[in-house]
Amino acid sequence: MNNRKWWLIGWWLSVLPAMGWSDEFCLLLAENYHEQLYCELRGMGQGGDLPPLLDFRRNDSMTQALILKRPAARVGIDVVLPKLPPRILPVPAVPEKRLDVQSPASAESPRGNLTCRLEGVELHCGADRYRLVGNRNNRHLADGVLDSDNRMDIPALPDGREKPQGLGVYLVRAYRQYLEKMMEIGLGGSTFSYRKFVYLFEDVTARGLDFSGRFETMFGFLKQDKRRLSVSEQLPDISRLSPDTCEQLDQTLAVCDAGRKNYLFRRAD
């Protein structure tokens, strides 16, 4: 990783408090299985022996596993040691203009070919108009969404997943469900890009772990943090966002993958 990328990661971590975040929202920065587990251990009060996330991230996968092993054992978690690097499965590109949940997906991005344009905090794709989604504090949420029985319900990976087209359909549906639940708990302004979502799928499944189960665990910790912590409801400045990074996920949602940050837009009536 070059110095510029490390600088950007360090900058992002440093600005979180100014944005109204506490470091308890660690899971919003986790990019793989070991980083998710790192954040979960901190959420369980086992972070005393762990380095800061930025320092933890500098280690290779085996070293990360060894760092996590002792605090994980204290709470009865077995750390899955790395075997092979994550394998990116070949998934065909989307042939239609708009990505539909019935269509194959690309492992790179759920991008269609429809041209979109930005106007203020709105994204216009053809005749469809979407408005930027931000984070929301708990007083604006529906009753019960932060309760323990509210699940993310990422669908289980179906049989026949070895077929690229079937995998593409699954990933798009899973990503759509993830986005909906993040908006439901007021974290629609802090979502993974589709590219990052697919990478997490590859990283988790390459270790023989259950992908939907991993996200269910993550959702539980996010709800726990959200019950205790406030978030900034101020919409980010998107004046420099390129519409070339944006695409319609369906007629209800559109996404813009700007690399460091993902922007989510909901259809405006």
* Low-confidence residue ranges: 4-22, 86-111
Termini separation comes to 43 Å
* SSE string, helices as H and strands as E: HHHHEEEHHHEEE
Estimated radius of gyration: 18 Å
Describe it.
The protein is α+β, with helices and mostly antiparallel strands. The protein has 7 helices and 6 strands; from the N terminus they run ααααβββαααβββ. It has helices spanning 3-15, 33-43, 53-57, 61-74, 164-184, 194-206, 211-228, and strands at residues 116-119, 122-125, 128-132, 246-248, 253-257, 262-267. It has a 6-stranded antiparallel sheet with strand order 1-2-3-6-5-4, with no helix packed on it. The termini are far apart.
Secondary structure layout:
Blueprint: H1 3-15, H2 33-43, H3 53-57, H4 61-74, E1 116-119, E2 122-125, E3 128-132, H5 164-184, H6 194-206, H7 211-228, E4 246-248, E5 253-257, E6 262-267
Antiparallel strand pairs: 1-2, 2-3, 3-6, 4-5, 5-6
Key terms:
269 residues, alpha+beta, 6-stranded antiparallel sheet, 7 helices, globular
Brief summary:
The chain has 269 residues and is an alpha+beta fold. Helix content is 35%, strand content 10%. It contains 7 helices and 6 strands; from the N terminus they run ααααβββαααβββ.
